[in-house]
Amino acid sequence: xxxxxxxxxxxxxxKSYGSNEVLSGIDFSVQTGTCYGLLGPNGAGxxxxxxxCLGLTVADAGNIALCGLPIPxxxxxARRRVGVVPQFDNTDPDFTVAENLxxxxxxxxxxxxxIRNRIPDLLDFAGLSGKDNARIQTLSGxxxxxxxxxxxxxxxxxxxxxxxPTTGLDPQARHLIWDRLKQLTARGKTLILTTHxxxxxxxxxxxxxxxxxxxxxxxxxxxxxxAEHIEPEVVEVYGEHAGTWARENAGLxxxxxxxxxxxxxxxxxxxxxxxxxxxxxxxxxxHRAATLEDVFIKLTGRELRD
Length: 306
What we know:
- The protein is of the alpha/beta class.
- The protein folds into two domains: 8-220, P-loop containing nucleotide triphosphate hydrolases (Rossmann fold, 3-Layer(aba) Sandwich), CATH 3.40.50.300; 231-289.
- Helix content is 34%, strand content 27%.
- It has helices spanning 46-53, 75-79, 97-106, 112-125, 141-152, 171-186, 198-204, 222-229, 242-248, 271-277, 292-300; strands spanning 8-17, 20-30, 35-39, 61-66, 69-71, 82-85, 159-163, 190-194, 207-212, 215-220, 233-238, 255-259, 262-267, 284-289.
- β7 (159-163), α6 and β8 form a beta-alpha-beta unit.
- It is globular, with a radius of gyration of 22 Å.
- 36% of the residues are buried.
């Protein structure tokens, strides 16, 4: 059976600003109807990658095909089939909720009647039913974020780019957006997501790339990356003198990392470590399965990025 055309294909992508090389040969492809994640610390090159894919920034080298169209040569045509949820909400405060959608839909050349017919379903999808005439200033942060998602769907796009779509939202709003994004992929839409929430990437992404210093350092499905890069069990030990105790007992795990007052033991079999900890009631610990966040930290480090 012939595989469907990739919704996005990026190869050997490079971009520099002066002497600073932001992208150093990025490669990835996104299968139609899937959610693909780009993960990386601040400054890793995620947003620059998205801007290049949309034709908003011109790469120095490499090839991009979005919806089968070469970028940037046919970027304007490709963007008609794309929705974008930017990192920061940029709805117009001078318009009501419905007017924001109406005006945005006109940018795609859609007839007003068609847009007005779409608005009720989009607001229902975004959990904003009954808010047609609400002013933007009266909306909560979660409502504004959901409106931005509804606006990105006004042209019924094939591909939706989402740049940190749930940053700053409370857990209830995050879960609602996660549910809506899963509904979109179930409908055959393709999602390209950047996020700093590793649990979000685990829940939503079929495949993902970890990017650091402009290079792809790993790619695969969330569970695949965890299995390939991290021991299956993690024990976090914390409390006074936890670091000293951990270093003296480093052999109880396959790998040890100490960050501040917390020691991270990465184990294939945590039983010996847990037995040893039972004799030190002053030490507290959390025993858990390895997660995508552990992969991220291992590949990109624990140092703070600005």
